[in-house]
Specification:
With 563 residues, the chain is mostly helical. The protein has helices spanning 3-43, 59-78, 86-93, 102-117, 125-140, 149-165, 168-180, 185-205, 222-259, 264-278, 287-294, 300-319, 327-347, 354-370, 373-384, 387-407, 412-419, 427-435, 455-465, 485-491, 513-519, 543-562; strands at residues 48-51, 54-57, 448-449, 469-473, 479-484, 507-508, 528-531, 537-541.
């Protein structure tokens, strides 16, 4: 074996191990920090009062208002216009540079921690995923040149999921399924190492940490439960759609409120914190409540109440700027919906499947929201250790994902990107073409003339330079127009300004290859002028140059995905 190969393997091992260690420590620090904050919040007795003979504390409202103030101060101090999440990780993995904004990524993780610790109805896994991508981007700057940027991102994401759920297989699949969206030998090895390392360090350094969710019941025979799971999958799909639409609607309302100089996070903190005084189950991550739902600790009416309020409060908090993830709330909503479906089956004396339906609901809703059905099924398998649970969840996941994909899209993150003008369904090539500007493909090989030049003189110059087009440039290099050889001949001894081509195709240097390819479909001519924002002439783009650039992008992506 060549020494270079041994060195590269050693560096891969070191890189994956170090990244796994970093993410194991950070993920557990995030989760344990949020859990400790939740315990403090629940035990605090600030501003106590009595309503209807029952004692309440306004601790949730006070603490969440403080958290909102910290989030606002953080955003202002760092001059950020928005926070970053998994959608940004996906986009970064599909661009040529694969760079994540490190400052925004770290700040977003801190904002999400603050929101979750303060009791905001937000999740923790989405921020951890993007933090993993941010760590991957940091490692990229000091890592191996032979490893592409998207693999570094994938390593960080896989380690985050592996440490967060203690599910190394799910971490590997999630990185490929939700972030990279392709499988290659080049990417599998370092991502596997990072994921396994994160899980190993998690078990070694934090042995007291238990599984996120505890289930005890055995799954019934698959044939017996499949019909109910299919019907339940339709219900879960409707709930996932409602959740995602509520998130988008709340975000639009939050922007309108913010435009009126009202701090939307404060509004969300007042509403969520106020309701949390009377219904504390809607606050925070909700892991404890989910486990209590598994144990049947709530009556059916109260489950319905916290399901509705959790959905609304999550949309409110995230949409109004109390930044956090959507994965944990989706798990909460799915388990609550599963509990309701189970109760209905019990009341109708059809069957009693309780936990298996709740697990299926958790998997179905979350997979539809994050767009990673295989990963979620593996999470179920690794969390429960039950093949029967995983297969049962698969039925509901398939039904729910098919419906939500048709109606809404692959995931909430994909819809966020589509709102920004990036359609992930068109693939990596389309994204790269849309993000590659024409400024890198400008040629100066063209004929430039003055508006006062005669047609005869220009015709002679065209003949000498073997060109059929010329560009008329005025003061400050501003493009006046374009004239072809037939126009020059018609002008004869007169100035060519009288024979300029009407409405010629013109590109800006900031236009993308995708725009150029679309615009040039019906183009007839030698080249297209490219101008700056101020209208000054930069050069030209020929069809050959354009198709060569597009071919280079396609070749690079094919190589990336096939290696």
């Amino acid at each position: 074996m060549k020494p270079q190969i041994l060195i590269e393997l050693a560096l891969l091992l070191i890189l994956g191990t170090v990244m796994g260690l970093v993410m194991a420590v950070m993920a557990n620090g995030f989760v344990e920090g949020v859990s400790s904050a939740a315990n403090f919040r629940e035990s605090a007795e600030l501003l106590q009062f009595t309503v209807g003979g029952n004692a309440y504390s306004a601790s949730s409202l006070v603490i969440l208002l403080l958290a909102a103030a910290v989030v606002i101060a953080l955003r202002r101090a760092l001059k950020l216009d928005s926070w970053a999440g998994p959608a940004d990780s996906i986009l970064a993995a599909h661009t040529d540079s694969s760079d994540v904004d490190i400052k925004k990524g770290l700040a977003s993780t801190l904002a999400a921690f603050t929101s979750a610790a303060g009791g905001g109805s937000v999740g923790q896994y989405g921020p951890l995923v993007h933090f993993g991508a941010t760590v991957g981007s940091i490692f990229k700057k000091i890592g191996l040149n032979r490893i592409s940027g998207d693999v570094f991102l994938g390593c960080g994401v896989a380690a985050a999921i592996s440490a967060g759920f203690n599910a190394p297989l799910a971490g590997v699949i999630f990185a490929h399924e939700a972030i990279l969206r392709h499988f290659s030998l080049r990417a599998v090895a370092p991502i596997f190492i990072a994921s396994i390392s994160a899980s190993s360090f998690d078990q070694q350094l934090f042995p007291s940490s238990q599984s996120t969710f505890q289930t005890v019941a055995n799954a019934p025979p698959l044939l017996q439960i499949v019909p109910y799971l299919i019907v339940a999958g339709i219900i879960f799909a409707g709930l996932a759609l409602t959740f995602m639409l509520a998130l988008r609607y709340a975000a639009s309302v939050g922007k309108r409120i913010q435009s009126k100089k009202i701090e939307a996070p404060i509004v969300a903190a007042i509403v969520c914190g106020g309701l949390g005084i009377f219904v504390p189950e809607i606050l925070g991550i909700g892991v404890g409540v989910v486990n209590e739902l598994f144990q049947g600790a709530y009556d059916i009416q109260y489950v319905a109440l916290i399901l509705v309020l959790k959905l609304i409060m999550t949309a409110l908090c995230i949409g109004f700027g109390l930044f956090g993830g959507v994965f944990s709330p989706a798990l909460f909503i799915g388990v609550s919906a599963g509990a309701l479906v189970s109760a209905i089956l019990n009341l109708s004396a059809m069957a009693s499947f309780n936990q298996v339906i709740m697990i299926a609901g958790m998997a179905a809703v979350s997979s539809s929201v994050i767009g990673a059905p295989i990963s979620v099924i593996l999470i179920v398998l690794e969390l429960t250790g039950s093949y029967e649970y995983a297969v049962s969840a698969m039925v509901a996941v398939i039904v729910s994902s098919l419906i939500t994909h048709r109606v809404f899209g692959l995931s909430y993150f994909d819809r966020q990107l589509k709102d920004r003008g990036v359609d992930m369904s068109l693939g990596r090539e389309d994204i790269q073409l849309s993000r590659t500007q024409l400024s890198g493909f400008i040629s100066q090989d063209c004929l430039i003339a003055d508006a006062s030049d005669s047609g005869d003189n220009l015709s002679q110059r065209m003949s000498e330079m073997q060109m059929t087009e010329a560009y008329i440039i005025g003061r400050d290099k501003v493009l006046i127009g374009k004239v072809d050889i037939f126009g020059a001949q018609r002008a004869g001894g007169e100035p060519i300004a009288t024979e300029l081509t009407k409405d010629p195709l013109v590109f800006k240097d900031t236009d993308s290859l995708k725009i150029a390819l679309k615009s040039i479909e019906n183009f007839v001519g030698e080249s297209v002028p490219i101008v700056a924002e101020d209208g000054s002439f930069r050069g030209v783009l020929t069809e050959g140059m354009l198709f060569s650039a597009a071919s280079s992008v396609k070749t690079a992506i094919t190589k990336l995905e096939k290696e």
